[in-house]
Amino acid sequence: MKSSIFLTAALFTLLFSLSLSSCKKDKDNATTPDGYSAITMADIKAKESLMATTQIVVSNSNGVLWKSGDIYVFKTKQGRYGKFMVNRIDISQNYQLDITAAVYNSDGSVKAQKSNLIIRGTWLSDLDNLVETNQATSADFFYSKPSQTDTVFDPGINNNGAKFVKY
Q1: What pTM was computed for the model?
Q2: Residue 154 contacts residue 55 (beta carbons within 8 Å)
């Protein structure tokens, strides 16, 4: 009899704990967009206080740190908000970066989007226009290769004010 009461109490406790954890998961999912396409300009603006102009290491002697599916949100030097997702980094092409990106107008409408924006190793990129560029004055970041294995994503080019954070 004591065993069945103990077993019933243990089972009740387990079920209660599982229901609480599933409620927490539902709450988290309700406040976090599910994937790249669900991220809106409002979600990006909410991350602005976490954005920085500091260099982000893409690869080092331990290998490539950025993975396919990694998402970054940003504010360009011209003040537009946007997002990009890493499609791949091609080591055989000097760590060429391939991203899917979108940038927004101030009213939240999409200014531009591109599914395969390629940035070669040691090139600049202008995210207001979603292009690779050789003009430092219009660049939002410098994708540089300081060594054979090291690759750096540097928004600090010319102190332009563009800033980024991993989503």
Answers
A1: 0.79
A2: yes
